[in-house]
Amino acid sequence: MSGEQLAFDREHLWHPYSSMTAPTRVYPVDSAAGVRLRLQRDGRPVEVVDAMSSWWAAQHGYAVPELDAAVRDQLGRMSHVMFGGLTHEPAVELGRRLVDLAPAGLDKVFLADSGSVSVEVAMKMAWQAHAASGLSRTKMFTVRGGYHGDTFSPMSVTDPDGGMHSMYGGLLIEHVFADKPPAPDEPLDTWIEETTRLFEQHADEIAAVIIEPLLQGAGGMHVYSPDAVRHLAALARRHGALVIFDEIATGFWRTGTRWAGDRCDVVPDILCVGKALTGGYLTLAAAITTADVAARVDASPAGAMMHGPTFMANPLACAVACANLDLLASYDVAATVGRIEADLTQGLAPAGELASVAGVRTIGAVGVLELREPVDVARVTEAALDRGVWVRPFRNLVYAMPPFICTRADIATITAAMIGAVEEVHG
């Protein structure tokens, strides 16, 4: 990439969560293959391990032969066709695979553009389902520390104070937020009592409980107990509310099992999936629900699910998603993620000795260093690049969600770079 192109980028292109008037540094990527990005630093080409899986989506890395072939094959047929009044083989086959993968009973699939949109759809399903019974249940019940997307309904169930959307607070519907669940090694009794009391105060208003089971992602990489998930689901069902699991970040074995909810022995009424669905190739997501919820939605005054994205069920995205799910089915993903978890745990353990580190945690193919102060993002990023690794810290967290194809040597490189960068910059 030329200096002129970089200057245009700086002057005209708005990057995620960044200032347009005072943008942070960006690194040009020339190509990517396997787990490595080939980028430019100060005009020099360098190759680094991507510890982020491109925001947790590229779980098989880059230039994956099976996924490349699926895209090329579908391009020879059609790249897109509207889903209103039409259908096509890639959408049908993807639906079949998702129904097979989803927990028993979840067999109605709404294909959406992105994870945030799938959460929008799930919340609308819940509202419409209660409207069919003439109930005015407009509130969602959730927990602090969560993150569910950047569009308006998902923003409204993202942490209103500590989350990244607090500035929009006055514009959003006010939902009901319980405290963040305790970590797995902390007692639950007080939290359960307080959460139960809060839910019961609002029970007649609550349409659904919505949570990220076991692991809160962009809200703070907080790990919590399956018992907390079970309690929230039980509260919902006791009082006639639905259960929505946002597994956009946690699904497809990222936390060690096919779905994080599997470790909780809870089947939600609506399951939101995305990110890794297409292996990072194209944007696609889904809200998967039960026949009962679908019937209730159709019995609402609208008589149908009132949502229809222009690029719903895009054939290219559906085709590559099918190939990606086939690839996941071709090997023992749970064992692979278990090996990555063990290597992350071992590799990050020495960080506990650093004065700047408040905590170290891993779950599945996720490793987190929690600092005692906000991360100096620019300097930690640079220090990690010096050690051959791309990370994207936020708040007080330096974390990795590496591709599943990482070797033990790759994980060792990632963990050493994380620790080294934090020690260099924060001590």
TrEMBL record:
Statement: the UniProt record of this protein carries the keyword Cytoplasm: yes
Sites marked Participates in the substrate recognition with KAPA and in a stacking interaction with the adenine ring of SAM: Y17
Subcellular location field: Cytoplasm
Database matches in Gene3D superfamilies: Aspartate Aminotransferase, domain 1, Type I PLP-dependent aspartate aminotransferase-like (Major domain)
InterPro entries (UniProt xref): Aminotrans_3, Aminotrans_3_PPA_site, BioA, PyrdxlP-dep_Trfase, PyrdxlP-dep_Trfase_major, PyrdxlP-dep_Trfase_small
Protein function: Catalyzes the transfer of the alpha-amino group from S-adenosyl-L-methionine (SAM) to 7-keto-8-aminopelargonic acid (KAPA) to form 7,8-diaminopelargonic acid (DAPA). It is the only aminotransferase known to utilize SAM as an amino donor.
Binding partners and assembly: Homodimer.
Entry's family note: Belongs to the class-III pyridoxal-phosphate-dependent aminotransferase family. BioA subfamily.
Protein name: Adenosylmethionine-8-amino-7-oxononanoate aminotransferase
Organism encoding this protein: Nocardioides marmoriginsengisoli
Lineage: Bacteria, Bacillati, Actinomycetota, Actinomycetes, Propionibacteriales
